[in-house]
Specification:
single chain, 5-stranded antiparallel β-sheet, alpha+beta, 2 domains
């Protein structure tokens, strides 16, 4: 191999190294952009779809939420990371009956989500562990509520207690008018 050919190969090698450096920088920028997009998604109440679960979850437990008079207002179906709530048949709870939106959604659940977002910012939990919730309706009538990533037993007790109190207040407003 001649000296000219070696010099040519060295120049090609340098150009390849420069290109690798530019591409690595571009990958770092893309990863930062992805982190920003994830943070925005979390702030809006959504989370990235998680990969298919491989571990077996504990069985779902049905917990009735009763008024003081014994009337079952709704049933909570508690799984490992998700709670589903279904109002009892014949009870037409709507989003507009206080204190559902103002207290339960805006203060209790949104407060928990904000706390989780702060924890994500401090690196204590990952973005896909942030509490999220969704209310399902038919017209104005609430047909279901799903709460994901509710946290531990303490938080579950807080959600159950706040929801039972909220539904009882809503039930009283519905039956007194």
């Amino acid at each position: 191999m001649s000296e000219e050919e070696v010099k040519l190969l060295l120049r090609v090698r340098e150009e390849i190294e420069r290109r690798i450096g530019r591409l690595e920088e571009e990958v770092r920028d893309l990863r930062r952009a992805l982190e920003e997009v994830d943070a925005l998604i979390v702030r809006s109440g959504f989370r990235r779809p998680s990969p298919a679960k491989k571990k077996v979850e504990k069985p779902v437990e049905a917990v009735p939420l009763k008024a003081k008079d014994g009337k079952v207002l709704a049933t909570m179906y508690v799984g490992e990371r998700e709670v589903r709530v279904t109002p009892s048949e014949g009870l037409n709870f709507t989003m507009d009956i206080p204190p559902f939106r103002s207290f339960f959604l805006d203060r209790v659940l949104s407060g928990m989500r904000s706390s989780d977002e702060e924890r994500v910012g401090r690196g204590e939990i990952s973005p896909d562990e942030t509490l999220s919730f969704q209310v399902t309706t038919e017209g104005d009538r609430i047909t279901g509520l799903t709460i994901r990533n509710f946290g531990g037993e303490r938080r579950l007790r807080e959600i159950r207690s706040a929801l039972r109190w909220t539904l009882e207040k809503m039930y009283k407003k519905m039956t007194s008018s």
